[in-house]
From TrEMBL:
Biased composition (Low complexity): 56-72
Skewed-composition ranges (Basic and acidic residues): 33-48
Highest classification ranks of the organism: Eukaryota, Fungi, Dikarya, Ascomycota, Pezizomycotina
Gene3D superfamilies per record: GTP cyclohydrolase II (3.40.50.10990)
Organism: Pseudallescheria apiosperma (Scedosporium apiospermum)
Domain GTP cyclohydrolase N-terminal: 83-228
Protein name per UniProt: GTP cyclohydrolase II
Signal sequence, start to end: none
SUPFAM superfamilies on file: RibA-like
InterPro entries, alphabetized: GTP_CH_N, GTP_cyclohydro_II, RibA-like_sf
Length: 419
């Protein structure tokens, strides 16, 4: 008896993919239509009074669980282009639910333009170099101004740029000891006040690029994000056509001392500190680690370089036992990984700033060094924290990192291989 032909699996998968794309387009069309109908309905009807929207005390339990649907057009629009979330999404939801914030509030961006011009640079258009932020995020309200007005869309920036003064108690001592010299431009006075350009960045992930950066396929990344956020973002699985994701995580901050334009000047010297935020040390002054001493040292060195060129201090995040040999083993026993401060996405901000090379990197971290160099940005010198600035109680941390080879002492460098 003749054998039946086998099913062509590739053809089946192709048909399924076509169906998925049709469903995606249909879903987008339905969202758009629903948005326009809701908007027209709101224009024809007066908003119900607060008294009418209140649930009476005698209402049955089933009625008390029925919340009115949001009249915001934001969700319908964003669901067609981005997987929503973001670090402030929960606070936004609470503000709307408690009626402290109108769901249809539109920010007034008058006089909110970036304090300084940064870019654009060729790196902004390279999906291999910037995958975890929107390079045009600081200009979004002005780029899409006409669209926001004609379509009543809520488009907000993901990057803010401002100018400020920085004041830290250690900096006054730095001036008194002569490590910093006031110049009225960068170091403003005898108390060590510093002029700084601050950039705050919210994460915007391009999922294919993020997956490639970590050496995994996009489907694996989407599945893991979906499963380990309690299924909060089902579109990660159902909407493969949507490539952008606002992760519910904190962003990063850049502090630039000196002329920001010199960061992208390949001729100007640049000192850089990639600093993982540590509340215990940075804020409360704990001496169990070297985070704040290294931060202050990094700021001092950045200011000195700025007085001769340009510099950056970049602030990110931290995770934090008493023998050096046990330090990372105990961390891994608890967290399951020695260090979850993955640095693979960190160089994106350097590309955004237009940085082409780093003359002095104020860090001995191999993870940070490797992440930056792998993205094509050479580092000419690595500068360690001076011995006299290391608190006694933090020796465990330093010795542990040396033991685990996550940092390298300057005496261990072979010259040509690292400098």
């Amino acid at each position: 008896m003749a054998q039946e032909p086998l099913v062509d699996l590739s053809a089946v998968l192709e048909v399924l993919d076509d169906i998925r794309q049709v469903q995606s387009r249909l879903s987008s069309s339905v969202d758009l239509l629903e948005d326009r109908l809701n908007r027209a309905d709101r224009e024809d009807k007066q908003q119900e009074s607060d008294d009418e929207s209140q649930v009476s005390p005698e209402a049955p339990a089933s009625q008390s669980l029925q919340a009115p649907s949001s009249s915001s057009s934001r969700t319908a629009f964003t669901s067609r282009i981005i997987l929503t979330g973001g670090s402030y999404s929960i606070y936004h939801a609470l503000a709307v639910a408690s009626k402290e914030l109108d769901a249809n509030h539109r920010p007034d961006f008058t006089n909110a333009e970036p304090a300084v011009n940064i870019g654009p640079f060729p790196q902004w258009n390279d999906v291999k170099k910037i995958v975890s932020m929107d390079p045009w995020g600081h200009m979004a309200p002005w780029i899409f101004k006409d669209l926001m007005e004609t379509e009543n869309l809520d488009i907000r920036p993901t990057i803010a740029i401002t100018k400020a003064h920085m004041k830290l108690p250690e900096l006054e001592e730095s001036v008194k000891s002569g490590r910093l010299v006031p110049d009225g431009s960068v170091c403003l006075n005898s108390t060590g006040d510093l002029a700084v350009t601050k950039v705050a960045v919210e994460p915007v992930w391009y999922l294919p690029g993020v997956a490639e950066r970590f050496g995994i396929d996009e489907a694996t990344l989407r599945r893991s994000l979906f499963e380990h956020t309690g299924g909060s973002y089902p579109e990660l699985i159902t909407r493969g056509d949507i490539k952008l994701f606002l992760p519910p995580i904190g962003g990063l901050t850049v502090y630039c001392f000196g002329d920001p334009q010199k960061m992208s000047d390949g001729q100007a010297r640049l000192s850089l500190r990639i600093h993982d935020e540590c509340n215990g040390s940075d804020v409360f002054g704990s001496d169990i680690c070297t985070c704040r001493p290294y931060l202050i040292f990094g700021i001092e060195e950045a200011v000195k370089e700025a007085q001769n060129g340009g510099s950056v201090v970049y602030n990110a995040r931290k995770r934090g036992e008493d023998r050096a040999s046990d330090y990372f083993r105990r961390t891994e026993n608890i967290a399951g990984v020695k260090d979850m401060r993955f640095q693979a996405l960190m160089p994106d901000i350097l590309h955004w700033l237009g940085i082409k090379k780093i003359d002095r990197m104020l860090s001995m971290s191999n993870m940070k060094y490797d992440a930056i160099v792998s993205q094509g940005i050479p580092i000419h010198e690595r500068v360690e924290l001076p011995e006299e600035r290391i608190p006694e109680d933090s020796r465990v941390e330093i010795d542990a990192k040396i033991t685990a080879a996550s940092i390298i002492k300057s005496g261990d460098l072979d010259g040509e291989g690292y400098w």
